[in-house]
Design goal:
Elements (H helix, E strand, L loop, with lengths): L4 H14 L11 E6 L7 H17 L2 E6 L2 H10 L6 E5 L2 H7 L13 E9 L2 E6 L10 H7 L5 E5 L4 H17 L1 H4 L2 E5 L3 H9 L5 E5 H4 L12 E6 L11 H4 L13 E7 L5 H15 L2 H8 L10 H21 L3 H4 L2
Parallel strand pairs: 1-2, 1-3, 6-7, 6-8
Antiparallel strand pairs: 3-10, 4-10, 5-8, 5-9
Helix pairs in contact: 2-11
């Protein structure tokens, strides 16, 4: 039986409409990846760029990192359409800024969707200039006790990971050496990694907080003006001989260890489609198992640490809540600013 031309065309059209839609809703899409930093030298950019390069290939998408800073990135997640064209990739400052009341409650985790965890950085570091009269964080209060007129100026960012690292240290000093010594450890508010590096070079700060990798070159130079040394990490990094808070005996008030690795997650606008979250989960799982991705992360002293979106949400909520007691008991950063 011959089909008429009209019937044949109709069948072809029906077949086209019945064809299955691509299982990957990101395929061929341009994706803007905002990060909460304006620097392209720190871990926020380096991790986001590395993850986006690999994840973009897995999704068949063109992912570009946009270093807009924390305020703009968080605001973007409240205003962007949940269509996959704009996502955020950032670390713990995402919730710490709200916990420290540096950002309004509208930016709480509850007002975003949580995507997969894409990376971890255990190398959050404090560094001093090479000739500083102390070699570790734990030596700083001893130096201050021996020099009653001295102060140590520490550059950190309000509401960020450096803020939580600072108050954990400050509270330990107060508990062990007294408030007089702790009060001579003061804050210099610094922004991006490059800003804090310049503060140290200009001797407008004595100790700065940044990523281990971003400061590494400065620890290998002989020029005393710019040469630095690490004085402590918030957590241990495999293969790196720099003592962590735990190694130095810097503890919380109850005597328990303080360890903090930065956790980088994908954050999404509210009501983000479930099928797009699943696509991110599946693609990121594949990326995390890729030997080249692992190698790219390892050479910067980072690690993958993949968690799917459901596990990542549970993890980051618990991490946020576990830090609230320390944050609530700490003095305001405004009272410690020099």
């Amino acid at each position: 039986m011959k089909l008429s031309r009209k019937v044949l065309i109709a069948l072809l059209v029906m077949a086209a409409f019945a064809a299955p839609v691509s299982a990957n809703p990101f395929d061929g899409q341009n994706v803007r990846v905002v990060i909460g930093s304006k620097s392209t030298a720190g871990d926020s950019y380096l991790i986001a760029e590395t993850v986006s390069r690999h994840l973009g290939k897995a999704l068949g998408a063109n992912m570009k990192v946009d270093a807009v800073g924390a305020a703009v990135a968080l605001d973007t997640m409240q205003k962007a359409r949940p269509d996959g064209k704009t996502i955020m990739m950032f670390h713990d400052m995402t919730y710490l800024g709200v916990s420290f009341k540096a950002y309004d409650d509208i930016y709480r985790l509850e007002n975003m969707e949580i995507g997969p965890r894409v990376a971890q950085n255990p190398g959050a570091a404090w560094a001093a200039y090479k000739d500083a009269p102390y070699n570790t964080m734990a030596e700083i209060p001893g130096y201050l006790k021996a020099n009653p007129d001295a102060k140590v100026r520490m550059a950190c960012e309000a509401g960020g990971v450096s803020h939580i690292g600072f108050i954990a240290f400050w509270e330990w000093v107060k508990g062990k050496y007294g408030k007089d010594v702790a009060d001579r450890i003061v804050v210099i508010v610094g922004g991006s990694t490059s800003d804090k590096i310049q503060l140290l070079i200009d001797r407008n700060a004595d100790v700065i907080f940044a990523d281990y990798t971003s400061l590494l070159d400065y620890t290998k130079v002989d020029d005393k003006k710019i040469a630095m040394k690490y004085v402590g990490l918030l957590d241990n990094v495999e293969g790196i001989d720099v003592p962590s808070y735990a190694d130095q005996g810097i503890t919380l008030a109850d005597g328990s260890e303080f360890r903090f690795s930065k956790d980088f997650l994908i954050y999404l606008p509210k009501n983000f489609p479930a099928e797009m979250i699943k696509a991110l989960d599946d693609a990121m799982k594949a990326v995390s198992e890729d030997p080249q991705f692992k190698a790219d992360m390892a050479k910067m002293s980072y690690r993958g640490g993949y968690l799917n979106s459901a596990a990542a949400k549970e993890f980051i909520y618990k991490k946020r809540d576990s830090l609230q007691g320390l944050i609530d008991s700490a003095p305001s950063l405004d009272d410690l600013v020099m």
